[in-house]
Design brief:
The protein is mainly α. The chain is built from 5 helices and no strands. The chain is globular, with a radius of gyration of 15 Å.
Length: 99
């Protein structure tokens, strides 16, 4: 019987452009259902794709605190979210919800 080899999937390996990063974040926002930690994890994936050290520098945060904030284990402050989004070159927008 043949052995199947698998490797862990890392979405950060597939986020190459800002458009791909924005589309990924938009999809995660749609699936989050109010889970801020889920969104933080998605931002962490995007930050890893762009380079965590550079994102931390651009956001004015330490790399360690950025890893903790975007680990998905906690909900970071809104201030941190805005700093990270700015560092990633992404904008936060609002639209009328479909109810």
């Amino acid at each position: 019987m043949a052995t199947t080899l698998t490797t862990p999937y890392d979405v950060a390996d597939h986020l190459r452009t800002r458009e791909e990063m924005a589309a990924y974040l938009e999809a995660c926002l749609a699936e989050a259902h109010g889970d801020a930690a889920f969104i933080a994890k998605a931002l962490g994936d995007i930050a890893r794709a762009k380079g965590m050290s550079q994102v931390a520098k651009d956001a004015g945060l330490s790399r360690e605190s950025l890893y903790k904030a975007l680990s998905g284990e906690r909900s970071p402050s809104f201030d941190t979210i805005l700093k990270v989004m700015n560092a990633l070159g992404l904008e936060l927008r609002a639209q009328v919800a479909n109810s």
